[in-house]
Amino acid sequence: MSEFKMEFWEPTEKSRRAGRAYAGFFEGQFFSVLLTYAGGRRGNHVHPNNQSTILLAGKAKYVIKRGDKLVTVQLEPGKRLDVEAGVPHVLLAEEETLTIEWWDGPFIEEPYTVLSV
Questions:
Q1: Is the pLDDT confidence value at 1 over 60?
Q2: pLDDT in tens, 70-95
Q3: Which of 4, 46, 48, 84 is most buried, judging by how many CB atoms fall within 10 Å of its CB?
C-alpha cells in the first residue's frame, strides 16, 4: 500500500491570514490542500519547479506574469492548471475556494510581486 501522510501546514503569517493549509506526501511527492478565504491571495512568488493546481470548489483565478504582461487565468473546477518554473504568479480567491497543488520537485518559493497587496 502507498504511504500517505498529511498535516496542518503554516508556511507564513501571510498564508495563515489567507486561509487554512494542509500539506502531505503521497509516494514521496509533496502536495498541499488549501482553503482560501474569499478575497484572499496566495502566492506573489515564483518556484524553481513546475506547479500544478486543481480547483476543487469555489471560484478563483491566477494572475501570471508573462514577459511584461499580466495574464489572468480563471480556474475551472476539476481542471488542472500548470505554472511553469520561474513564472511569477498569484492566486486570487473570488469566493471561498479549495485547491490542491503539487510541484515536480521540492516546495521552494521565492518572493516576487506580481500584484501589490
A1: no
A2: 999 999 999 999 999 999 999 999 99
A3: 46
| Beta strand spans in the chain (E) | 4-8, 19-26, 29-36, 41-46, 51-57, 60-66, 69-74, 80-83, 89-93, 97-103, 110-111
Burial class of residue 116 (count of CB atoms within 10 Å of its CB; 0-12, 13-18, 19+): exposed
Distance separating alpha carbons of residues 78 and 60, to the nearest angstrom: 12
Which of 9-23, 47-61, 77-91, 96-110 is predicted with the least confidence, judged by mean pLDDT?
A: 9-23
Locate all alpha helices (DSSP H) within the chain, ordered by sequence.
13-18
In the CATH hierarchy, which top-level class contains the domain 4-111? mainly beta
Q: Where are the domains of the chain?
A: 4-111
Query: How far is residue 73 CA from its own chain's centroid?
Result: 13
Amino acid at site 112: Y
